[in-house]
Write a structure and sequence with these properties.
Length: 438
């Protein structure tokens, strides 16, 4: 939509306080308008005349901070690509916890124990999402699960897991929580309201991940409000650059941290600190590791671990046929059934390495409400936009090898995704209470 008739801020009914400020706003408007014209996004100013002065300022500032070249290049490349699998796929070796001997478990765990006792371990929880898929308004970590004998938020459940480790080793593990622009303030307020769940405040560090604009199927950015372009957090793979940008990798190094676990907020059985996994990783002289669960059904829509061109990677379910999913080794073990459960371990050196790398973006087709040219919010009945995200597992391709440890999902995997799928609150509650014998 053309915007030749849009008036700059100087025409607002509330004049600015000085001539210099007026000139500054005028220049800002013209700069923003030229940027939008260059990238064919002029529609973003279609409601500009109807905004208050502060709203105009907010919209212009956002336009000037968005990397239009980046987001529109991602859009164009994703449209042009047929997403064909071009890399050579081969199996990635894995270990199964229930096949380890008692002696192996004891030796590996003791090796991990000694490292944890040295205060060299940190936990990163990725909690940048909202609870919208659960019909919940607020950060997903604040969602309350109806447990016995009392309701607990996902943050409290996660905190309790880390506190058990602290008590076991007589230490206090630094807990890093990645939020987003959308939920950072609400998350911090929630911790304040709950007295940080009695966790030492100086050991909880919040940091925000980055955003990317949402793009509709025609390649147009959309308005969340007449004065606000719709953006969303750009995936859990952004955790490395966000740690770097916030000088937290440097802080970890100065604090003597050598190992970091990464996990999502929604798995109520997540074991953030696992001496067995740590010990196995150290013993095998590796710097990255992941836990997996067995993919029971061959064509289940679940991504699995593999090698692509010899490097550790994830094979998306769209690239898995029945033949590949049922392929076995000489011992009768499936080669492509180790499903990602978002439970990772990395050395600090590995984190430092990938924090300077550029991870690929993945496109997701999503439904997003938007403000139309008349200023009315429209709620689509089907996906209408593309969201682009980095994923943490793409960092693994920068290494030659990694450790995979398959665990029992009844002991370590009870995520809450939505109300209609298999990973719903009722199932998570049942598995949590059964495991803890509540």
């Amino acid at each position: 939509m053309k915007n030749d008739n849009i008036q700059p801020i100087e025409g607002d009914s509330k004049p600015t306080s000085s001539k210099s400020t007026l000139n500054e706003h005028f220049n800002k408007f013209n700069t923003a308008k030229n940027i939008l014209k260059k990238y064919n996004q002029e529609h973003l100013l279609c409601l500009f005349d109807e905004l208050s002065e502060s709203e105009k300022e907010k919209l212009l500032n956002q336009i000037l901070t968005i990397n239009f070249e980046e987001i529109l290049t991602l859009y164009k490349n994703s449209i042009a690509s047929n997403f064909a699998l071009t890399q050579k796929v081969s199996p990635l070796e894995h270990f199964e916890k229930n096949r380890l001997s008692n002696e192996e478990i004891k030796n590996y765990s003791e090796l991990g124990d000694s490292e944890i006792k040295n205060n060299s371990f940190a936990v990163v929880t990725m909690a940048g999402g909202q609870g919208s898929r659960l019909g919940y308004s607020g950060p997903k970590g604040t969602y309350m699960l109806d447990l016995e004998p009392k309701r607990k938020s996902l943050f409290e459940i996660m905190c309790e897991d880390i506190k058990r480790t602290n008590e076991k080793y007589d230490i206090v593990i630094p807990w890093y929580i990645m939020t987003s622009d959308e939920n950072d303030t609400a998350t911090r307020n929630f911790f304040e309201l709950n007295n940080f769940f009695d966790y030492p405040r100086n050991k909880i560090i919040f940091f925000k991940q980055d955003n990317l604009p949402i793009v509709n199927i025609e390649g147009k950015l959309i308005l969340q409000e007449p004065y606000l372009i719709k953006e969303a957090s750009n995936g859990n793979g952004n955790v490395f650059k966000s740690l770097l940008k916030n000088n937290l990798i440097e802080k970890m190094e100065s604090d003597g941290i050598k190992w970091i676990s990464f996990g999502g907020i929604d798995n109520v059985l997540l074991k953030n600190v696992d001496s067995l996994l740590l010990g196995m990783t150290i013993a095998k002289n590796l710097s990255i590791a992941s836990k997996t669960i067995f993919k029971k059904h061959p064509l289940e829509k679940t991504a699995v671990y593999c090698r692509k061109d010899g490097k550790p990677a994830i094979l998306d379910y769209d690239d898995i046929n029945l033949e590949l999913s049922e392929e076995k080794d000489s011992n009768g073990l499936f080669l492509y059934r180790e499903a990602n459960m978002l439970s990772h371990l990395m050395s600090l050196d590995a984190v430092k390495k990938v924090s300077t790398k550029t991870l690929p973006y993945h496109r997701a087709y999503k439904k997003n409400t938007f403000v139309n040219f008349e200023g009315t919010k429209q709620v689509p009945d089907k996906p209408n936009t593309f969201k682009f995200e980095n994923f943490i597992f793409d960092a693994f391709s920068f290494f030659d090898n990694m450790l995979l440890l398959r665990v029992n999902p009844n002991e370590e995997f009870a995520p809450i995704k939505d109300f209609t799928g298999i990973y719903n609150p009722d199932t998570a509650k049942e598995k949590y209470e059964k495991f803890w014998k509540l």
